[in-house]
Amino acid sequence: MPPSRSIRIASSLGIAWLLSGGLTGLASPDPATVRGPESCGECHKQEVEAWKATRHFSTFNDMHRTDAARQIAEKLGIRRIKSESLCLECHYTGKVIDGSAQVITGISCESCHGGAQGWMDVHNDYGKGFTKETEAADHRDRRRALAAQAGMLYPADVYAVAQNCFQCHIVKDEKLVNVGGHATGSEEFELVAYSQGEVRHNFHASAGKINAEASPARLRQLFIIGTLLDLEYSLRAVARATERAAYAVTFAKRVKTVQARLARIEELAPTNEVQQALAALAGVALKLNNGEELSAAADKVKAAAQAFASAHDGSALAGVDPLLPKPGNHRGPTFQPVATAN
Predict the structure, then answer these.
(1) H/E/C letters for each residue in the chain?
(2) What is the pTM for the complete model shown?
């Protein structure tokens, strides 16, 4: 059956939203695929409450009002921050409402887990007459597989979810930095420190009662995958640079810094995948007009990171524990639900 006219209109608007900035691989989901956080909150109440305590949530009301944002916008000739694609890509979530794409919130559930239009109904289907608690195991496995095929990014797919962090925390637009004066991203961004701070929303095992800490094994896995992603995305940034200015210089230095961290990981907890990522850098020059070679190296690092995510759960990698950020260095306070009397 052909798609309805409304779906075709919404899809074309979403494509325009994404392509108007001239970028590829955007973090912001296509507005035509977005349902909005209120849909997620019907089942994931505590997760949404945790999100409301984050800067991901507050950017919707606050970011465009800051002096820094206004100065960047002025340098780039941006008149309305909430309707310019360079800002929409990372700071907001859009949704098609009455035939047009509109900003509805800040960085939200679907920014990380994928636009839910195609997968939410599958994700919520526990089988006729069954609930989440009584769903058969084979039905659950089939449901999750179908939701993933429809675009849902589950936390278990660490590389796929984590790469959405780097889509924004590593700025992809050179002009935004060199002309606008925007930071190159979060220069100190590290996956464990950021994911275990204010954005943590791990309520699944406790049915909403506790925002649980990640296990030591999970932290090791996140740390190494985050380092591999940092190397991949920093290489891609150098590859796209066109002039010797802040963007190119900063990311060339970052590649060296991350390379050294990865070499230290390899010393403490050697794996074939980390060895492959380091080998991908051999003989690669961090210079302008070397995009093909740098991109090829980034592709090899990506393949190594994806292979690592599939092969290692972190349980056998305790050697990296001294490198992990301590809880006091996690970014922002972690939300915990308020206990209620029975």
Answers:
(1) CCCCHHHHHHHHHHHHHHHCCCCCCCCCCCHHHCCCHHHHHCCCHHHHHHHCCCHHHHHHHHHHHCHHHHHHHHHHCCCCHHHCHHHHHHHCEEEEECCEEEEEECCCHHHHHCCHHHCHHHHCCCCCCCCCCCCCHHHHHHHHHHHHHCCCCCCCCHHHHHHHHHHHHECCCHHHHHCCCCCCECCCCCHHHHHCCCCCCCCCCCCCCCCCCCCHHHHHHHHHHHHHHHHHHHHHHHHHCCCCCHHHHHHHHHHHHHHHHHHHHHHHCCCHHHHHHHHCCCCCCCCCCCHHHHHHHHHHHHHHHHHHHHHCCCCCCHHHHHHCCCHHHCCCCCCCCCCCCC
(2) 0.90
